[in-house]
Amino acid sequence: MIVLTFTLVLILGAAIAGFIGSLTGLGGGVVLIPLLTLVFKVDIHYAIGTSLISVIATSSGAAAAYVKEGITNIRLGMFLELATTIGAIMGAVLAKHVSTSGIAIVFGIILLISAATSFIHHEAKIDGELPGRLSNWLRLNNEYPTETGMQPYTVKHVTGGFVMMNVAGIVSGLLGIGSGALKVIAMDRIMRIPFKVSTTTSNFMIGVTAAVSAGIYLREGYIDPGLSMPVVLGVLLGAFIGSKILFKAKTRVLKFLFAIIISILAVEMIYNGITHKL
Amino acid sequence: MGKHRHTPEDKDLEIIMGNLLRYGVLFSAIIVVAGALIFLKQHGFDQSQYTFFKGEPERLTSYKRIWQTAFQGRGRSVIQLGLLFLIATPIARILFSIVGFVLEKDLLYTIITVAVLMVVLYGFL
Fold first, then answer.
1. What is the CA radius of gyration of chain B?
2. Chain A partners of B97 at a C-beta cutoff of 8 Å?
3. Which among A7, A56, A85 has the least Cβ separation from residue B116?
4. How high is the ipTM of this complex?
5. Domain boundaries, chain B
6. Per-residue pLDDT for chain A (278 aa), expressed as one digit of tens each?
7. Which DSSP letter does residue A120 get?
8. What residues make up the domain containing A67?
9. How far apart are CA A232 and CA A217, in angstroms?
10. N or C: more exposed end of chain B, with fewer CB within 10 A?
11. A142 DSSP β-pair partners
C-alpha cells in the first residue's frame, strides 16, 4: 500500500476507534491496537506507541466537554493519578522485557476481563451508605447532575481502588492503552461510584497516565510519525463526535456495545499471540 | 456528608482547564497536519512499511533533535514535534491544577498534585 492510501484508510479506522473509545470512556487504545496489528499488520511495538499518543489526544480533547457537564470528580482523579502514574512507569519498563506474542496475549486477557465485567449486570444503585474515614479525609465524596437534579454519592474502599489503579497504570504502560476499563472497574465496582462519574473521571486520568509512558516510549523509538499522524487525527475526529453524544447515551447500551466488540477482539489477539502471528 | 460539593471556583477552574487542554490539542493537531502535508508531499507515493519494528532514528527520539530538525522543515520531525506538544498537554493540566489548589488554599491536594507532577516528570525526563 502506498503511504497516501495507508494514511487515509488509517484516519478513517482511527476515527471509528476514537468514537467508540470516547463513548465508553476507555480511550481509543482498546480498539486501536487490534485494528493496527490485526487489520493493518503493524508491528505491535509501533501500535503501542501510536496508541498511547491517541489515548492522550482522546483524553485531552474530550476533557472540555466532560467538565462542562460537571460530572468529573477532580479530587478523586488527582488522588488516583498518584497510583496510575507510578504504575505507568513500572509498565513501560516492564514492556522492554516482554515478547511481542506475550504482549498480545496479556492484551487479549485484559480485554476479556473488561468485557466480562460489562456483562455482569448490576443495578444502577446510588447508595447512601456511609463512606469510609479515608474518603472523608480526602474529601472524595461529591455529587453529579442527573435528570432529576443533583445526586450526591459517596466513595467506598479507597485503598482497594488505589491498588487497582496502580495495576491499571502498569497495564497502561505495558500495553499502550489508557486501561480505562480497569480504571472504570476500580471506580465502578470497588469504589462504588456512579458509572457516568467513573467514566469521565477515568477520562481525566487517562491522559496523564498515558503521557508518562508516552514520554518513555518516544525516547525508546516506539513512536513513528508516519503512523501516529493519521491515527491521532482520526481519533481526535472520532472522539469529538463521541463526546457530543455521551451525556444522552444510556449506560447499559454503552456497556453492552463495548463488551461485544472487545470480546471479539480479545479472542483474536490471544489466538494470534499463541500462534505467534503477531 | 455533602459538605464538599462543587464550589463555584471549582467549577470555573475545571472549565478553564478543559478549554486549555482543548486548545493545546488543537495547537498540536495543527502542527501535526503541517508536518503531514510536508511528509505526504515528499513520501506520499512511497510504499508503507510498518510490519517490522526497526526503531526510530535519533532525530525522532531526542527532544533536542526533534526540535532542531523540525525547524529545518523535515516533515516527520514536524509531526513528531506536534506529537510532543500533545504528550505535554496533560502535564499542563497538572501544573494548572496545582495553581488552582494553591488558590483554593487546599494544602492536601496541592501536595498530592505536586507529587503526581514529580512522578510524571520522572517518566518524561
1. 19
2. 74, 78
3. A85
4. 0.85
5. 10-41+55-124
6. 788 999 999 999 999 888 877 676 555 677 888 888 888 888 888 898 899 998 888 777 777 666 666 678 888 999 999 999 999 999 988 888 888 889 899 989 988 887 776 666 555 555 556 667 888 888 888 888 777 888 888 888 889 999 999 999 999 899 988 777 788 778 888 888 887 788 778 877 888 999 999 999 998 888 999 999 999 999 888 877 876 775 555 666 776 777 788 888 889 889 988 998 76
7. S
8. 3-274
9. 16
10. C
11. A153
